[in-house]
Write the structure tokens for this entry.
Amino acid sequence: MKKILLIGKLNHVVKETNTFLSQFFHVQLCSENAGVLEGMLKIVNPDLVVISLIGAYDIDTSIFFLLSSQYSQIPVLTIGTKEESSTFFKYYENGQFENLIRPVEHTTIMEAVCRRLGIDPNEAEHEAEEAKMQDKQENKGKKLILVVDDNGTALRTMKAMLQDRYEVALAVSGAQAMTSIGKKRPDLILLDYEMPVCDGRMTLEMIRADEDMKDIPVIFLTAVNDRENIEAVLKLKPAGYFLKPAEKNRLLSEIDKILFAYSS
């Protein structure tokens, strides 16, 4: 399946677009922040970037410069009204960027996505079915671990450490973690304590405030090794915590122990 990075404010339009495209592609949501985007581009290595221009005047315009200057090989599809897209007209000149005018039907979005990817819609549907079957076979019986960290290198390291034993999902922020949990409930969450905007404490509070999520065990990962910080972490009563960088065998052993305790 082709990989799509979907950028935009987490509103009902973006959620609906994500739900629709996820039937045929691997879709990863990303906020319209250049720093977060750069990390996600390195992690996901997408075949296509789709940008929702709703609230265009608040969008970090440097994401367009980043995509055109450093990732010019990745096609970009924007979706917005004429007024919203007018802010970024200069980027549409070289062919990397294409805009769809809202309101737009899902079928039109699908046609544009496939055109930008250079594939037939029927081919995309066939690839999606094959990939889903393969994923089911590969992840059959595997527990799902969600890793939440704003550092792209840390996410790649954790995925490499865990993927042989578990199914692994990644999120670069607390907000993205909540979206991921809503799509597929993980068996355990590895949560970075020090994150900008929505830190580990706030993310854990959101998880525990949701009736369907509150019982998911959470292990904190923290890079700050001082008594005050550790005490602050422990007051939140997580299932566990590790200092970064976590040692692989100890972490795997702790995850196994926690998963066993929560399943019994």
About this structure: The chain is about 45% helix and 20% strand.
